Amino acid sequence: MKRTTVSLIAGTAALAAVTAFAVVQEPAQAGTGAPKAAARLPVERTGLVCPAPSTSDLADTQYTSFTPVTEGATGDGKATLAGVTETSGDASTAQNGKKKPAGKTPVTPGTPGKPVAGSVSGGSAPALVGTAEGTYAPGWTVQATTGVAAGTGRGLLGVTCGAPDTEFWFPATSTAADRTDYLHLTNPDDSAAVVDVELYGPEGTLESSVGDGITVPAHSSEPILLSTLTTEKLDDVTVHVNVRSGRVGAAVQALDDKLGGDWLTASADPASTLIIPGIPKDATAVRLVAFTPDDSDADLKIQLASTNGLITPAGHETLHIKAGSTTSVDLGDVTRGEAGSLILSPGDVSTPFVAAVRITRGKGNDQETSFIPATAPVGTRATVLGNTAKGTTLSITAPRATAQVKVTASAGTEGGTAASKTYTIKAGTTQDVALPVPAGLKGTYALTVETVSGGPVYASRTLVSTDEDGPGFTTQTLPDDRGTVAVPDSTQDLSILN
């Protein structure tokens, strides 16, 4: 798929050019010594996009903003979030520009090291676009956590706001009658973006004419109901978002009539090995959905990194994916009461793919669902917000090599003192770590994970509602926050960065 490759390269270039700037130091004089490793410097500017959290009148949403303190970050800087306009939410209105005005901005970002929160009730909260500069930029993170008391998609929904890009993959979406899945496209820039949305089912491409050339106006958000893009009603669909011009932020809100709902963020880029971290130990059902954009079939080995090491789920040792098709498999209660992460690796032939899981907790009328996409490693550092004293679980896995990680709990949004702990995660295991809770905690707090040695490590956070009137849970992954970038010396051979 040549277009996929080209758009991915374009997306990488755009991200480097727009959302991650670093101060470049004066070049050193040329010498005859061995090449130096590229210095990592704090970014000077970054951008985020948050989809509109809910259209339900029964929704209560808390926004949290946080920037970790980063050594070497310079300049006072600032961070801002602003609401954008939005359409009413299907493919036709996305094309004709029928808008509702932006609402109030619900939170004002605070100084580095201090999380701040704001809230809004009902379905009027807009999509947000934001930028941060100077000391506010490195690792800036924003999350929206929404409780919906009743109706389609009831429960707890959470999303970490993402960076705008030019390509996204969403396995585990659906066009079935009992699902209401919206693809939210948000344009943070001053010119319109043009987007193609492609859907893939078990038999390949789903025919659609309205998904081509969708215009997302400047500073605008378009929620597109996926079932309006095709006549086929399918339980498992993969969505491919390809931006012809400009950039957008993208996320899918997947709502079920009976099983609640949550946000599905994009899978890691297609690769031959992917990690899905932190499946809750009390998951009653896990459905794995995968797709390969390649011209060849993919055969995957499925392993579970448990608390005691790598195991192969009985009866689910492998997964065959037809070229250009979406494939799913029910893994049941694969974690069996222990922390676990899925490691998906190639069989005899390496073929790139994307993947995500849909998780169900509870039984009968008390069931709720959430999603975990395959994700990038924590890398240098990653942060997740909205954590509470009770109901927060941080899962960390080291699929290849033993690693040490440092976890820091910030002060609370309303008070408290930060605390840190260091953990050793053995190779091939997943650990639900005992969290350092801030002393005197008031409000919610940020969790920042840093790789100290070894690894790589992957992580996710599960947040369980403590509100008896609104039970539910939500899970977010912790990919690297891109708070620093590699800046080579002028005499360095740039090929060592690849």
Structure summarized in a few sentences:
The chain is mainly beta and 498 residues long. Helices cover 5% and strands 48% of the residues.
General description of the model:
With 498 residues, the chain is mostly beta strands. The protein has a six-stranded mixed β-sheet with strand order 6-5-16-12-18-19. The longest helix has 17 residues, at 2-18. The two termini are 22 Å apart.
Q: Which radius of gyration do the C-alpha atoms yield?
A: 21 Å
Low-confidence stretches: 1-32, 92-98
The biggest beta sheet is recorded as: 6 strands, mixed
- Protein structure class: mainly beta
Portion in helices: under 10%
- Head-to-tail CA distance between termini: 22 Å
Our estimate of the beta-strand percent is over 45%
**Whole-number mean pLDDT:** 88
Q: Which strand order spans the largest sheet, edge to edge or round the barrel?
A: 6-5-16-12-18-19
Shape: globular
Which helices and strands occur, and which strands form pairs?
Layout: H1 2-18, E1 21-22, E2 39-50, E3 59-66, E4 78-83, E5 85-87, H2 91-96, E6 99-100, E7 116-121, E8 128-133, E9 141-148, E10 155-160, E11 167-173, E12 179-187, E13 193-201, E14 204-205, E15 214-216, E16 220-225, E17 237-245, E18 249-256, E19 260-264, E20 274-279, E21 283-291, E22 298-306, E23 309-311, E24 318-321, E25 326-332, E26 340-346, E27 354-361, E28 368-373, E29 381-387, E30 392-398, E31 403-409, E32 415-417, E33 419-425, E34 429-432, E35 439-442, E36 445-454, E37 458-464, E38 473-477, E39 484-487
Parallel strand pairs: 5-16
Antiparallel strand pairs: 1-2, 2-8, 2-39, 3-7, 3-9, 4-8, 5-6, 9-10, 11-17, 12-16, 12-18, 13-14, 13-15, 13-17, 18-19, 20-26, 21-25, 21-27, 22-23, 22-24, 22-26, 27-28, 29-36, 30-34, 30-37, 31-33, 31-36, 32-35, 37-38
